Automatic annotation (TrEMBL):
UniProt keyword Membrane, yes or no: yes
CDD domains xrefs: PT_UbiA_UBIAD1
GO CC annotations, alphabetized: membrane
Pathway info: Quinol/quinone metabolism; menaquinone biosynthesis
InterPro entries xrefs: UbiA_prenyltransferase, UbiA_sf, UBIAD1
GO BP term (any one): menaquinone biosynthetic process
GO molecular function term, any single one: prenyltransferase activity
Name assigned to this protein: 1,4-dihydroxy-2-naphthoate octaprenyltransferase
Topology with respect to the bilayer: Multi-pass membrane protein
Protein keywords: Membrane, Menaquinone biosynthesis, Transferase, Transmembrane, Transmembrane helix
Subcellular location: Membrane
Organism, as annotated: Caloramator australicus RC3
Length: 302
């Protein structure tokens, strides 16, 4: 049993929940500042629901990537904390069947929470939740296998940027505000970039498994250019937000620019040297977290 729970914890990987925590906090802060609306109970319930979806997504990814070979083909020198899945099945910590049932149970529980929120608090959350579950499941599950068909990057950017931020705002306020979509754009671009740079170490394994994400399709050298471009889009969106919302505190996002320049330079120089490329992986995550913090500060200062 201790083996199972160790595997479950490794599969859940709470440290990556920051991907959904940041947009939820941004959405909740914008709701409170914009409409003076915040409910801790429903915030907590939504938080748990999204975390369960994340665990379920991880489990589904483990199962499919193991079966296709995407995780099994990762060589020892290409293994990093940022790539190769959660390594639970490959390392024998969980069985294929156990990972499959973790996925089924956690996504089922997330759906129950979503239904409770929709029925007893805010029905408009239902459509947002359905979309979230759809992308979490079919990100990698047949027949759609979005990550294998070059649509995984869009699914991650849309879900962890726009969908989660808007979902939390609606949960807190009972209203849809399209400015929420606007302020979620930097997070969409940056979380896509986290996925993007994390696909570099898996390049050869993904190619062998026919997992045709955009890094595989473009090759590493061209993909570094897209990596830089996604950062640029996030900074451009800060300018747009500042102008449209007349809140120039959003320009605080530019404080991360030196980190971004360093990450891109390192990726350009070491895209074939995975152990040195890890620096760019780590910095991309740091930029995402710092951006979320600066956005929350900008909203509060408004």
């Amino acid at each position: 049993m201790s083996r199972f729970w160790k595997g479950f914890w490794q599969l859940a990987d709470p440290k990556i929940w920051i991907a959904s925590t940041i947009p939820m906090l941004v959405g909740a802060t914008f709701a409170y500042v914009n409409e003076k609306s915040f409910n801790f109970l429903w915030f907590l319930l939504a938080l748990i629901g999204v975390y369960l979806i994340e665990i379920g997504k991880n489990a589904v990814n483990e199962v499919v990537d193991y079966i296709t070979g995407a995780d099994r083909f990762v060589t020892q020198d290409k293994r990093t904390p940022f790539s190769g899945g959660k390594k639970t099945i490959v390392d024998g910590v969980l069985t294929l069947e156990e990972a499959k049932w973790i996925g089924i149970v956690t996504i089922f529980l997330a759906c129950i929470i979503g239904i409770i929120i929709a029925l007893y608090w805010e029905i408009k959350v239902l459509s947002i939740g359905v979309l979230g579950v759809f992308f979490a499941v079919f990100y990698i599950l047949p027949p759609l296998k979005l990550a294998y068909r070059g649509l995984g990057e869009f699914a991650v950017g849309f879900t962890f940027g726009i969908l989660v931020t808007l979902g939390m705002y609606v949960t807190m306020t009972h209203n849809i505000n399209w400015n929420v979509v606007l302020i979620s754009l930097p997070l969409s671009f940056l979380i896509t970039n986290v996925l993007w740079i994390n696909q570099f170490p898996d390049y050869e394994a993904d190619m062998k498994a026919n997992k045709r994400n955009w890094v595989v399709r473009l090759g590493k050298e061209k993909s570094v250019g897209v990596y830089a471009m996604l950062f640029a889009f996030s900074y451009i969106s800060f300018i747009l937000i500042s102008i449209i919302l007349k809140n120039y505190f959003f320009l605080l996002g530019f404080i991360t620019l030196p980190l971004t320049i360093s990450a891109v330079k390192n990726a350009k120089k070491h895209y074939n040297d995975i152990q040195r490329l890890i620096l760019s992986n780590a910095k991309t995550v740091q930029i995402y977290i710092l951006t979320g913090i600066f956005m929350i500060i900008a909203i509060i200062l408004q």
